[in-house]
Amino acid sequence: MTRVILLFLFLLACTGGAVWLGAMFLLPPKVTLASPSRGAAVEAVYATGTVEPSVEVPISPRVAARIVALPFDEGAQVHRGDVLVQLEDTEYLASLVELQASYDLAVKDFERKTKLHDAKSVSDDALDQALAARDSAKAKLDKAKAQNGYMTLVAPADGLITRRDGEVGEYVPVGQPIFYLSCCAPLRISVEVDEEDIPRVVIGQKVLIQNDAFLGQVFEGKVSAITPRGDSTARSYRVRVTFNDDHHPMMIGMTAETNIILREVAQAILLPRAALGAHNKLQVLEEGRVKIITPKLGSVGAEKIEVLEGLSEQAQVLSPYMPDVPDGSDVRIDDGGMWSWLP
């Protein structure tokens, strides 16, 4: 008797399972729906770059010499005319003394021969030679004074010392920078924009700027310049971004993440990104059946898409998109209830 009961229960379970499986395959598929909403839609070009001075002047000597004084260090604010570097000028000063004496002697000789020439005691040629000797001595003295001026390097303008590449006692050759001075203009950002996006970037566009060192803060700027020649290897173009507010905490050399705003709409029609299928298709529920449409889209983000035309705000859209549900299919709405997993 017990075996009969167990066999009956087994057959009942098998029958119920078969019915359940049959229902799963025969009933229309379940779908979840999303309705369009209104919100801000932003289309932007993302690019990374580096904060840099708009103008950075290298301070380098015009003569080779040894450094004897460096009054300032990196990070110092300097003013126009401040002495930044003093080079060893002992030999130049000695040469100046010698050339000054030669010039003084040439002046006296010219004055003496002028008087003698007036008295008809010196020829015109002798006077001309004395004049040439005086002028030559003056030229040599002026040249030495100018070269001695090269031994003192001064700040050409108010600015910030961003880098120092020299030490007291070091011998530096001609043209080797000792200081780099950021001056004359505020900081900017140089970013590399992909060649596919650069045609849509124009001067004056709004730019949102972020950096990991300042979490939660967004700084604003604008596109100030676009290089006319791109990098054929990186397939990108350099874009200069300036800050709207010079009083920002960003520092030279920091990495900046930027979003160049191409288009911004305050009250756009939005849908979840998951509702979008291949080739910009949407599945709309009309009278219990699926209708596949291809609306005109605007910006497409990671979470939301913007619909420009071809979709009513009252529409019910399948989300996520179900590629296995063809056009005209019957579907059932999954309301997310406790028994929603049942057929």
Strand order of the largest sheet: 3-12-15-14-13-16
Quantity of strands, as a count: 22
The 3D shape can be described as rod-shaped
Radius of gyration: 41 Å
**Distance linking N and C termini:** 35 Å
Largest sheet: 6 strands, antiparallel, barrel
- Identify low-pLDDT runs: 16-24, 338-343
CATH architecture of the domain at 44-54 and 185-265: Beta Barrel
Provide the helix percentage: 10-25%
The CATH topology assignment of the domain at 44-54 and 185-265 is Elongation Factor Tu (Ef-tu), domain 3
Averaging pLDDT over every residue, what do you get? Answer: 85
Helical stretch tally: 3
Which class best fits the helix and strand makeup? alpha+beta
Tell me the CATH superfamily of the domain at 44-54 and 185-265. Efflux pump adaptor protein, beta barrel domain
Portion in beta strands: 35-45%
| Sequence of secondary-structure elements | HEEEEEEEHHEEEEEEEEEEEEEEE
What is the name of the CATH class of the domain at 44-54 and 185-265? Mainly Beta
Task: Summarize the structure in words.
The chain is 23% helix and 36% strand. With 343 residues, the chain is an alpha+beta fold. Among the domains are: 44-54 and 185-265, Elongation Factor Tu (Ef-tu), domain 3 (Beta Barrel); 61-88 and 151-182, RNA polymerase II/Efflux pump adaptor protein, barrel-sandwich hybrid domain (OB fold (Dihydrolipoamide Acetyltransferase, E2P), Beta Barrel), CATH 2.40.50.100; 90-147, Helix Hairpins (Orthogonal Bundle). The strands form 6 sheets. Strands 3-12-15-14-13-16 form a 6-stranded antiparallel β-barrel. A 4-stranded antiparallel sheet has the order 4-11-9-6, with no helix packed on it. A hairpin with a 3-residue loop joins strand 19 (296-300) and strand 20 (304-309). Helix 2 packs antiparallel against helix 3 (124-149).
